[in-house]
Amino acid sequence: MRVLLVVPVPPQADGAGAIPVLLHAELEGLRQRHEVTLVTAVGDEPGEEEAVARLRDQVEVQVADRRRPPPGVRRRRRQLRMAARWGRGEWPWRTVWYADPGIQRLIDRVAAERELDVVAVEDSAMSVFRFPVGVATVFTHHEVLRPRPIDWKAGAPRAWPGWAFGELDWRRWARFQRRAWGRFDRVQVFSRRDAEAIAELAPEAAARVRVDPFGLVLPPAADPARQAPGTMLFVGAFHHPPNRDAALWLAREILPAVRERCPAARLRIVGSGPPPEVRALAGPTVEVVADAPSVLPHTEEAAVVMAPVRTGGGMRMKVLQAMAAGKAVVTTPRGTEGYTGFGEEPPLAVGESAAEIAAATAALLEDDGERRALGERAREFAERHHSPEAWAERQTAIFEEAVAERRERDRG
User: Fold this and answer.
1) 233: which DSSP letter?
2) Alpha-carbon distance 23 to 138, whole Å?
């Protein structure tokens, strides 16, 4: 197939956050099966220009420039354009930030120059663009956001403007998401929970939704000899509220319960932008590592990887990365989402309460053989179901379904 892949950031195997990493796996799988043209944008994140240069050796890449201009007229124009776009009351700020107008020009250029079979659109910010008429479209929504009550904890008066902006911005998501789901022939989500959320929020879109867990380019298996005994690892980007909640729960309730059975247990928290309440967890038994250039050394040293997530949707990249490295993972039922639809139980230790999670963690820390066996099964599971090839096979089936339905509709 001739596939136009539209993504918000350049795919990167070692990118910051989950999105560049999963996009790298997606591109790796699709380009082995299809003729792929990639449309993306370069922003101010480190390594994005270098990532694009590497991609040009693999696929055709069309790149918009989303970088902030130097101080002056161009920067002021950009600020005014973005403020005006948000002020219209339709797009959340994240979409305003990523949906650079240059991306639309690139999509139009590619559509004018060649025939396409399918347009694959990744992430909600990319859903706003115009796509070629008559071409099947597949939209991947990474995490469905459900409506929530107003958070009345506005903080100190100096924080009120930011609080008001955030609450207004959040209110836009319900209508924005529903409009996005209605624009595409197929909508992919990573977990059954998100599919159920769409069915509840937009029943008219439910028949077009497909659950398709993402993949990962498997790293080398972690060397068991490099484990630091008793080390529990949590990894997360702390702009995401579920990660803040998980880190606090882990340090304040779960770790003390683990240490009752395993006094040598220590917790290492690694992530980008830890807020003050997470930094404050650091102490004799808790290490907080902010903005590490790579999580791989920390993963290798971990005896057990923790993912005690209680909120949020989608699939957890931290879980898949640890499984792919051959690590034993302890998580919650919510943390297993995206791993349970393959007719076999995912090789994860699962607990719902702090006591259950602590008991599962302590048991693994005390049993080297079981911990290693669980990690080996986890890596095999990741390779079987979440490799780029496995993911591309599932995506191709969805593409073919969308293309066949579009052709049938056009004939009718």
Assistant:
1) E
2) 15
């590619």: which residue's tokens?
110
Residues 139-182: pLDDT tens digits? 999 999 998 898 888 888 888 999 999 999 999 999 999 999 99
pLDDT at site 42: 96
Q: What backbone phi and psi angles, to 5 degrees, belong to 210?
A: -130, 135
- Over 80: is that where the pLDDT of 234 sits? yes
| CATH class of residue range 2-216+389-411 | alpha beta
User: Closest Cα to residue 314, out of 199, 201, 196?
Assistant: 196
Is 47 in a helix, a strand, or coil? Answer: coil
Q: Cα separation of 100 and 126, whole Å?
A: 9
| CATH 3.40.50.2000 domain residues, the chain | 2-216+389-411, 224-386
Options 1.10.530.10, 3.40.720.10, 3.30.300.30, 3.40.50.2000; which CATH number does 224-386 get? Answer: 3.40.50.2000
145 by DSSP, 3-state: which? coil
